Amino acid sequence: MPAEGNALEGSTVRKLIPTIVFVAVLLPGFHVRGQTSGELLNQAVEAYNADSLAQAAKLFYEVKMTDPQAANRAQAEYYLGQSLFKMGMYQSALAFYNAVFVAGPAHPYYLKGTEGLVRVAEALKDDTLIPSQINKYYNSQEFANMDPMVLSRINFYVGLLLYRQEKYGESMAFLSAIDAESAVYAKGLFLQAIIHIRLGVRYNLARDEARTKAEYNKAIELFGTILDLSGHERVKAEEAIDRYDNIVRLWQLCTLNLARAYYGKGDFAKAIMYYARVPRFSQDWADALFEMSWAFFMREEYGKALGALHTLHSPRFAKLFSPESWILKATIYFHVCLYEEAKGSLGYFSEHFEKLLPDLKKLLDENLPNEQFASLLLKDKLEKTDPMARVPDTIRLSILNSPRVENFRHFLRSLEAEAVAIDQVSEWKGTRLREELAGVVAVQRNLLVRTAGGFVKANLFNRYQTVLGFVGHAKLVKLEITTRERQLLKAGLDIKAERRGKLAPRPDVPDETYNYWPFRKEYWRDELGFYEYTVRRACPENR
Amino acid sequence: MKKTVLSFLALTVLSSGALAQSPNERVHVLQKRDYSVKNKIEVSGFFGMSVDDIFTQHYSGILAVDYHIDEAFALEFTWLSSKIPFMMGDKVSDNPASYKGDWFRMGHSYTDAYHNLKDDAQLSPSNADLAMISNYWGINVEFSPIYGKFSLFNWGLARADFYVTAGGGVTTTEYMRPDESWVDTGIYFMGNFGFGFRIFLARWLAIRLDMRDFTFAAKVESEAGATGTTTETKIRNTMFVMLGVSFLFGGEEPVEIWSPY
After folding, report:
1. Is B122 an 8 Å CB contact of chain A?
2. What is the pTM of this model?
3. Does domain B40-250 have CATH number 3.40.190.10?
């Protein structure tokens, strides 16, 4: 019987053979297009076993649509999903697995159909639609009979979904139910830690210091647990890499988030230590540099803060959407009384970010349908007439850098390939199966495009709001600068910083494992991340 | 030293910055060394040749083993060989200090200037000027105060250490008599100094170019006079150019610092 990867499933189907024969013997009167219902199902099963999957799918579909026996129809429904899955037609398979799943525990293939949904979610990298469906019909009593590894994956998906909906308590309940042997165990721990950080931020806003620290401490402990999965030695780490999904990326993210947790706790020295561990040129590096400059700022290490921003503002990150970094730079200059430089940073912010607002607003106010927003994300090249071509590069790239974009694109490519594949199966020409599958894929594609469009629209709105918020900050800094300059004049001091103090000496080289180079307006790739400023001691109290 | 500038090399990896630098600030680079040599053992093989002698020409193989005490200082053991050590050939019966045989003296030769002088003018330089280094074993101290880096058309970066080196050891020298027999002049102390640089191609691999001046007192037979044969001593300097490849072992292996290994 079916040459499944799953041994359990193979044995189940083996037991069904006599049943099928039994049904055929008992009910000889039922015919489907000249054949008994049992014969057709047997033919389908034979084709499935012989790996003639297109033929098997066609026959299972016939049984599903025409067989008077509910048991045969149920079996055909599930194996139709299986055949399509094996053919790589994941969306089509999803339709039939979903039918099995939605039918509930009364369906003899209920749990297997649920497992099928999980496999499709993995194949399509869908962490939204299928998890949402599973969550809707989650049946803890029945799921308890499921393979714990599959159940863990379901719990992870549902936990992730609930986390995105900010239902942190419920999400935690699902995530903490993940089996420690499961491949998603580390991901589950990571998500729990992130929830603790989110809660820490909430309590911090509510000025509840004790609970803030407690949440951050829990997060730190969980990040530590994930790092400990490596055993801190190569052999064990390699075992962990084989066992857990995407664990190397999680280790990187743990480093960044440990820094964030310590920052949240107010332990800026430790935060800086972890930020500095984020690998240079890695995908988290820009975030680490920016947040590290904040940590240096909080420690009043202004030279190092400006140094981190210097890398962030280098040509390497020319198209980075980082309006806040320019406000931070202006704020640092303000703190060291370099008002001209502060104004320069604000000018840059105004020129490169504030200026984008009218176009963004116009775009958002046009009430375009979601489908039009989706082209920003799903098309490699935008035509000039496409409204998304008006989205500035920095903002477009900031949206495209989201890890969810790759999932959307993968999903879309998969659907497009599936539509072509359905069209090319010769056995299905002129059949209802082909029509139905083409319809399923088309409907899903439209849904995906709408969802992707919604994602883009929400992100554009978010960028608009972000810049708008910093415009307000910029105004405040400008106002403060004017006040300070007035005070300087009143005190009879020169407005020009050059005349108010000496430049600080160059920083000491920490030890012989460091090289010193003066920066002469050349950005060398190997020097990025190693900058440090010294500034003129221009504040009146430093004179 | 800030980036070594070679005029034909394109230097900048990236174009110049977003904002003009203000007179109220300086930007410095405190860069963690990517090519640390501290506590590393460096094994180098060189090909060397003498470049300044009028009459003699050495071709040598050189093996050097360096221990890098830190980023700046290293101790180096050097073995320079122009001839298979301790092989002398067949003794010449009328002169117990003379030997015949050539194949193991593959790195010893005399220049055209010597042959011209000998064949055309029937003259010969003094034996001291004909003495050649056969083998040398010595210890040097190496100091690398200068580092640099350069980029070739933005294809990548190469890092270099520039060093000076000085040391001494023992050497054996030989010279050829007019009858083409070779005379072993015994073992002497030989000092040397020089400079060079290594360009790192990887953390474990470098190319080295050295310039060394070897100084030794050549003690040879003088021409036979009325009072018979005497010994003549002359301070000789031989400049070597050495090109080699180095393999570095040990030291601290750089670890991706995010790695939980």
Report:
1. no
2. 0.80
3. no
